[in-house]
Write a structure and sequence with these properties.
- The structure is a single chain.
- The protein is mainly beta.
- The protein is 2% helix and 51% strand.
- The strands form seven sheets. A five-stranded antiparallel β-sheet has the order 1-2-28-27-26, with no helix packed on it. It has a four-stranded antiparallel β-sheet with strand order 3-4-5-6, with no helix packed on it.
Length: 372
């Protein structure tokens, strides 16, 4: 079944702090390409649950699926090229694709949490080198990004998650050197972002992909999955990473609601519900505001995609815009004809790669965002 292409055009009134009157902008979010929407195509074109997307300098699209240990590669027009890797613990194999990214040299960097190693593929997977990761109590990365020329930044909750004696957690950002043999820097206290006294926040750290954006070599921007209208800007000043809060669209105090599991004997929870087991019992949390993607555009502005629950448990997908100094400019809701699970990637041409859904299976939608 082929799905029709979608073009979305909407208007937004922005209120920058330095302007007295509102500025009207025209924004276009237009579909360029769809992969995975035709169930009659070969298996290579179908996805179970898309986890990671990245692109190289030629526009080739690399996709990892949650139910496989290989990377599918498509050309810029959506034609299948090949698969890289396979299930296993041997050379060029992965027990799990925890996260992956293509660096500026067109090398595919794949992080395997279960095997505690990183495999770097070149020449579309024809060559590879495997790097063991230094021993740590827990190696649990959820995202990896190239950082400067010879290093990578991981979003990884490394240790136990919470120290009951000190009421503190661990750092969540870790900069590794080029061959992943050591951690050059670690920063970002978990307690600065999450309320670790609340068990459901402790339990959910790392269980849902939060959003990390490398603004430049001295600035990293972070949006937690449960979004409360705050982004976290980490800036390297005099070799020390300092935190600054960035205020986005004002939210109310109900980003999440704690539900009683016994109220749902049939397990028919509202959409957008998180469920965790704990010594205290089953924890059920309804998420009302969620981060869906965080990116820096080529013009230096930052775009944050988010969703908010409306009446009838329907979700409104929207975009927050920030200027080059990370000052909030405004918000626009998008009336879309397809569900957005996550905006997973932005390429060098400012095209966004959206994990969507169609008839129960995953779909990639390549979208172009234009702000006049």
């Amino acid at each position: 079944m082929m799905m029709k292409q979608v073009s979305i055009i909407f208007f937004i009134l922005l209120f920058p702090l330095h302007l007295v009157s509102a500025q009207e902008l025209k924004i276009e979010f237009k579909e360029q390409l769809v992969i995975g929407d035709d169930e009659n195509k070969p298996e290579e074109y179908l996805f179970y649950d898309i986890k990671n997307i990245s692109t190289d300098n030629d526009g080739n699209i690399y996709v990892s699926d949650a139910n496989t240990s290989k990377i599918k590669v498509f050309d810029k027009n959506g034609n299948f090229i090949k698969s890289i890797g396979k299930k296993g613990k041997g050379p060029g194999e992965m027990a799990e694709v925890s996260c992956m990214v293509v660096n500026s040299d067109d090398q595919l960097v794949v992080v395997d949490r279960l095997s505690r190693r990183v495999t770097v593929f070149s020449d579309l997977g024809e060559k590879f080198h495997t790097y063991p990761v230094p021993e740590q109590p827990i190696f649990n990365p959820w995202a990896v990004f190239p950082f400067e020329k010879n290093s990578y930044v991981f979003f990884a909750y490394q240790k136990s998650g919470f120290n009951k004696e000190t009421k503190n957690g661990d750092n969540i950002f870790h900069i590794y050197n080029k061959d992943f043999s050591k951690i050059e820097n670690t920063f970002g206290k978990s307690e600065d972002i999450w309320d670790l006294k609340k068990i459901f926040q402790r339990r959910r750290i790392g269980h849902h992909i939060s959003d990390l954006c490398v603004v430049n070599s001295k600035c990293i921007l972070f949006a937690p999955f449960i979004y409360r209208g705050l982004l976290y800007l980490y800036e390297n000043k005099n070799k020390r990473w300092q935190l600054q809060l960035v205020h986005g669209k004002p939210m109310n105090d109900h980003a999440v609601e704690l539900l009683n599991a016994s109220d749902f004997p049939d397990f028919k929870f509202p959409p957008g519900t998180l469920i965790s087991g704990s010594p205290e019992g089953v924890i059920v949390v309804k998420v009302n505001y969620a981060s869906k993607g965080l990116f820096t555009m080529n013009d230096g502005k930052t775009v944050h995609f988010s969703s908010m629950r409306k009446k009838g448990n329907k979700f409104q997908f929207g975009i927050e815009l920030f200027d080059k100094k990370q000052r909030y400019m405004g918000y626009a809701s998008i009336k879309k004809d397809f569900p957005v699970r996550k905006v997973l990637w932005k390429d060098k041409n400012d095209k966004f790669y959206v994990h969507s859904a169609a008839e129960g299976f995953s779909v990639i939608r390549v979208m172009k965002l234009k702000i006049n």
